[in-house]
Design goal:
Blueprint lengths: L1 E3 L2 E3 L2 E4 L10 H27 L6 H30 L3 E3 H34 L4 H4 L2 H27 L8 E2 L6 H7 L5 H33 L5 H29 L10 H24 L2 H11 L6
Parallel strand pairs: 3-5
Antiparallel strand pairs: 1-2, 3-4
Helix pairs in contact: 1-2, 1-9, 1-10, 2-3, 2-9, 3-5, 3-7, 3-8, 5-7, 7-8, 8-9
Length: about 325
Amino acid sequence: MAKTGNQSSVSIFLVVGLCDAKDPQVLLFLVFLGIYLITVVGNIVILSVITSSQRLHTPMYFFLANLSIIDIIFSSVTVPNLLFILVTGQKAVSFSGCVTQLSFFQFFVVAECYLLAVMAYDRYVAICFPLNYTLIVSREVRFRMVLSCWACGLVNSVVQAISISCLDFCGPNKVDHFFCDVTPLFKLSCSDTKLGEAIFLFVVAVAGMGPLTFILVTYGRIIAAVTKISTSRGRQKTFSTCASHFTVVALYYGSGIFSYIWPSSTYAMDKDVKVVAVLYTIMTPMLNPIIYSLRNREVKRALKKMLGSKNIH
């Protein structure tokens, strides 16, 4: 700790990890290393398939490619450091390193929220306005949509970094999580966190619940449109185009809401909360490419063509 007048200033944080064990945890290291490798390879495969197949050069797959990029970086923000903690038992991270990790995490968690909303809008236009789909979701429009998602993530990242950097940390210095995030750091601050809490809750409402509300309303309209299709086969085929995206949304938001809509007065990072945090920060980026490849015939067909194999069904 560095001394500032009569007050101590924390310059090093100890990231507890999944548990407070001091010894290396080799088994957990191997598990999460495997998950991380599957995440990176799976999303790179999705990117390669979309890039190499002319048939997949459509708005839907353009958004999916951006989702894969976000998932690769999103998981890389937290998992490598977690692996380092698990294999070495060394948990120290500098204040600047902690804020940097928090900034990148907040960047991509919000960017993904908005991108999932954009993907829901894409499905809505494709199903409800099929004749005008390419006109409404033109090349220029979809680029602007994606840039807006990244811009919202950047704004949130800067706001949260400034909010945390303005707080005083006098000790203790144990971050009760497996990565540096906003709520565990609020718990450690010795200054008034009311303004930071208000900013964070505003972000959760606008950047988290806002896109979710939009997605739910959009899917409500999609369902209303699909029920008007006369044949059951037509309804099933139309619903199948949304199944992958809706599954991803359910996984991401289901676990994310449990982690962030938690009693903010305590910020208690118990085992259940950490397990749920693992779901949306580590497991979901791994599952996304699997979900889209297993439930999407066009992706499987393009993957089969790219690999030159007839064993993919």
